[in-house]
Amino acid sequence: MSSIGSDAASDFIAATPDALWPRVRRALPIAALLAAAFVGAPAVGDDYWFNAILIPFLIMALAGLGLNLLMGYAGQASLGTGAFMATGAYATYNLMLRLPELPLPASLALGGVIAGAVAVVVGLPSLRIKGFYLIATTLAAQFLLEWTFNQYGWFSNYSTSSSISAPRLVFLGYDLSSPVARYLLTLTTATVVTLVAARLVRSQTGRIWTAIRDMDTAAAVIGVPVARGKLTAFFAGGFICGVAGALWAFAYLGTVDARSFDLDRSFQAMFIIIIGGMGSIAGSFIGAAFVVLLPILLSRVAGAAFGGAVDAGQLENLQNVVFGALIIVFLIKEPQGLAALLARLGRRLSSPSRR
Amino acid sequence: MSSRIGRLRRAAILAVVGLGLGAGLSSAEEPPVQKQYIPLLTYRVGAYASSGIPIWAGIIDYFTYLNEAEGGINGVKLFWDECETEWGVEKGVECYERVKGGKDGSPVPILWPHSDPIGKALTEKAAADKIPLVTLNYGRTEAVDGRVFPYSFPVVLSFYSEASTAINFIAQKVGGKDKLKGLKIATVYHDSPYGKETQPALDLLAKTYGFENIQIPVAHPGNDQSAQWGRIRQLKPDWVFLRGWGVMTPVAVKTAAKTGFPVDHIIGGIWSSSEEDVRPAGAVGKGYLAITTYPAGADFPIHDKIRRFVIDTGKSNLQDKKSFGSVYYNSGIVDAIILTEAIRTAQGKFGHRAINGEEARWGLEHLDITDQRIDEIGATGLQPTLELSLSDHEGGGIARVIQWDGAKWSTVSDWIQADRDLLRPLILERAAAYAREKGITPRSDADSTN
């Protein structure tokens, strides 16, 4: 274990001046992207872009990221993403409701911590079972938690429809209810969480996760703390999904009930990382772009091209056919996900002499 | 493949993607047109498509009829486009954002979410954008209090009124409300926010009339209900109020018949009252009762007009002509009548032109669909009377009961009035709680002029 730790540490310390420039160059596109997202988008975007495109995209990317830490990095397959998101949403709601003096970021983070704690409990069986059997236990959590939030009125402050509705979003005196403000809230959260996650997967914890994923027996033999590694992965994954769930409820929809976080949501997160790329931070974002944005694009293109000429129901089904076909094509072209596809493309572009 | 061509191709794909997304940014800036835009949020695919398709057909056929036969509303023709939601929230929100700016110069007067979760998610967005949401027989019950919810209109029959009309129908059957005392009435409900919504109302009604209120949940989707109906056999209720959703309804009817509960003592709720809900149950469904505000039938005068101007001229949106006059088709007509009459009312104040959401809200809050007006439209017996006001966004609170004869529905009751005065304090209490939580100052009735 100690050897892995020092490996990880030396990897960070080894950033000698020689290696600095590639690192900076690698960081440049990300910096440009962040600048565009923080400055450019609010300047040109309108309600449609924030409410319908950017906010859901960022939140689902975040949920994908949470699952990616758990499933892509630590190898613990989970269908509990929806349940963790619901936990985060309901926990944050109750914190904001019952402890109104807490600032918004603290409520969000604490909601994430509660979701993480619940995820750890859900992850306890992972110490004994793995693979498809673990999926079954996380599936149980998915159903149990959704049912719990629907069944017990306390979670929704006895709202008769069991739905929770965002209290006014205020931070440091600023009203965050406008689309731009909600977008910036989502973006800031996503940025911070992603940077921490990117750091985390390169740290000792991340290496432990990878070791467990690649072969947990071997990892245990060389002294990697397997049990702790699995549970930290569940905590980290649950935390991020919880934050995503809270944002989904408050920054995106405003009013949700537990149905918003049903099994379909868990599958959606899983598709995001399978299509985007397991074990890749960028993959979560690329996958979310594919799963969330492509159907919208298809619908707009189809509407502009055939609207009125083709029966509306047929047109919708056709879009689903095209979307499904694209998933299959991309997965055949690159089973490692779109992130790997893009990385290969990037390598080819940067070295044009070869092939 | 040479990498250059590959790169070009990728660039081309990226450009197309960019253009497509960019289309969302452009908005038409043209001089006002004398045409009224009505966006339709549809679900023609997905789990509920079979009920959605006849609804849009009813709506679009009525619009087409107005345009063809009456020249629109006061000369303002209607035009519409569809945005597919698959009944889901994200697509619904995306559609809402896409259409809310209006089209070709016409603003959006009224929006139908046509899905409970979409309606909930849009409540605050629509209030901020000043676009009224009209939800026929569903939606937040507390939105009946229009002082707190200025842009939500759960018209005709809220879930509370639905429960109350069911109880009042039972009262008619047993010979008066005083005979309800001592009866056992079991509610078999879809275990979801929608299913639980009637519980506070039934609690109060049970206390008031002295019947025993039994609540039996069915987990989604409700494919197997032997446990629930086994319990019913033990408890022996006099009546069962069935608040189903999707496949739950036919399974309930079938299981009831199997366990020996008389099907003609089951009263389906508003979302258990279509042909699609009972036909799969087969022959045992005969005698099943259900509550509706849009009885089935193709013999209303409005159907003759639609047949003449729309169906026979080949302009109908209906693919399967068998659905003409079905419950869902007729619900589309009722939806369309309420929307167009609200626009007509607003035009009376603001002029014969395309109107916007704020003006349409005024139109809705001054809407009065009288028996006489319903007769002019040709929808007597189909369309309930409806009078809305600033503090009452429900209006009717009336419904009829229909009975399945094995092949089609027949109407077996006149319009039954819910005990709205009894239930209103419950609604006001919830609306006040919402206002407190959200920091909303309720409008006063004096605001009704603007």
From TrEMBL, chain A:
<dbReference type="InterPro" id="IPR043428">
    <property type="entry name" value="LivM-like"/>
</dbReference>
<keyword id="KW-1003">Cell membrane</keyword>
<feature type="transmembrane region" description="Helical">
    <location>
        <begin position="27"/>
        <end position="44"/>
    </location>
</feature>
<feature type="transmembrane region" description="Helical">
    <location>
        <begin position="131"/>
        <end position="149"/>
    </location>
</feature>
<dbReference type="GO" id="GO:0005886">
    <property type="term" value="C:plasma membrane"/>
</dbReference>
<keyword id="KW-1133">Transmembrane helix</keyword>
<dbReference type="InterPro" id="IPR001851">
    <property type="entry name" value="ABC_transp_permease"/>
</dbReference>
<feature type="transmembrane region" description="Helical">
    <location>
        <begin position="267"/>
        <end position="298"/>
    </location>
</feature>
<feature type="transmembrane region" description="Helical">
    <location>
        <begin position="102"/>
        <end position="124"/>
    </location>
</feature>
<feature type="transmembrane region" description="Helical">
    <location>
        <begin position="180"/>
        <end position="201"/>
    </location>
</feature>
<feature type="transmembrane region" description="Helical">
    <location>
        <begin position="77"/>
        <end position="96"/>
    </location>
</feature>
<dbReference type="Pfam" id="PF02653">
    <property type="entry name" value="BPD_transp_2"/>
</dbReference>
<feature type="transmembrane region" description="Helical">
    <location>
        <begin position="50"/>
        <end position="70"/>
    </location>
</feature>
<feature type="transmembrane region" description="Helical">
    <location>
        <begin position="233"/>
        <end position="255"/>
    </location>
</feature>
<protein>
    <submittedName>
        <fullName>Branched-chain amino acid ABC transporter permease</fullName>
    </submittedName>
</protein>
<keyword id="KW-0812">Transmembrane</keyword>
<keyword id="KW-0472">Membrane</keyword>
<dbReference type="GO" id="GO:0015658">
    <property type="term" value="F:branched-chain amino acid transmembrane transporter activity"/>
</dbReference>
UniProtKB/TrEMBL annotation, chain B:
<dbReference type="InterPro" id="IPR028081">
    <property type="entry name" value="Leu-bd"/>
</dbReference>
<dbReference type="InterPro" id="IPR028082">
    <property type="entry name" value="Peripla_BP_I"/>
</dbReference>
<comment type="similarity">
    <text>Belongs to the leucine-binding protein family.</text>
</comment>
<dbReference type="Pfam" id="PF13458">
    <property type="entry name" value="Peripla_BP_6"/>
</dbReference>
<feature type="domain" description="Leucine-binding protein">
    <location>
        <begin position="37"/>
        <end position="307"/>
    </location>
</feature>
<keyword id="KW-0732">Signal</keyword>
<protein>
    <submittedName>
        <fullName>ABC transporter permease</fullName>
    </submittedName>
</protein>
